[in-house]
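Revision sheet: structure tokens.
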Amino acid sequence: MTEPDRRQAAIDLAFMQQALDFGARGQGTTWPNPCVGAVVTQDSPDGPVIVSRGHTQPGGRPHGEANAFDKAGPNAAAGGTLYVTLEPCSHRTIRAAMPCVERTILSGVRRVVAAMADPNPRFRGLGFALLRTAGLEVATGVLEDQAQRAHCGYVLNVTQGRPMVTFKIARTADGYAGGPGGTRINVSCPEAGRWVHLQRAHHDAIMLGIGSVLSDDPMLTVRLPGMAGRSPIRVVLDSQLRLPLGSQLVKTAAEVPVWVIAVEGASVERELALVAAGVEVMRVSADGDGHLDLGEALRLLGTRGITRVFSEGGPGVAEKLGLAGLLDEVIVSTSPKSLGEPGIVALRPPLAALLADPDLYRLAETGLIGHDRFDYFVRKTG
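Predicted:
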């Protein structure tokens, strides 16, 4: 590689990282579409400078590229470079007057740098081909691994019909998520608690099992200053519709939607009572143990457009999801404080064994948030 090539590669990495970082701001607000980040640059005597940045807007439109071009204004992108985290869309829809490929060509940019191709086999590579046919220089695969992770929910929805699932659990230094008999304990430090609320805001839905609802009566909203409107859909896995009408979730269903997933044979009377209280009830098949089929439940969420699920469902739900191959990311926060007596084990042995298997998961990140240590596991694919 020549020195100019190395310099250009370094520039491309730097601006693609900015596109990924900017795109992450809108995660949780754009479903069923992915949150695509885009950066438009122009050359200057001192090197490339940013003309505009954009990301997919709430509700999924406009897309990241269109948002960046809108911010740049007429002719400002001409002759420049577009950095985008996903292949520009090439097909027309009812909602969009112009696909991003056409918008990119008309912007006048001379070069497009993309992190990854569209995972949809119907359109994969078509956007790149159209751009090249129009005379634009196209480079692909820049920070592709990071983009695949950022758009994991969209990729899984397209390829498997389900959203990605991130499971998060907090434990004491001696490994417990709850006290004796399932009593609730305060595990996380304040800084870690605020971080969890930020993660909620960056997902389309929060999901937990009915056992956690009955023991904790949570609200599952985003309670950070100025971010109440970022509270995602709240999903309860509740085979037999045991969700109490007086629970915090039901009482706030008019403010933040609550979806309950039950088995087909659950009580119709209970469903009618929950629906009357503002809760939406959906049904799936039962598994061999009479519990709801988790794979079918996630595919149901996929049909509703959900791409990113943040699971706070407790050790039992996590174990079942893990054994079914449905946990894509696992976040374990460990407090420096010990419980000092037997309690509810945070990571049951089967799930702990899965996370320890280097062929299944890799430890992608570790660090401190406040006094708590966070370990971030990512499921390997392929």
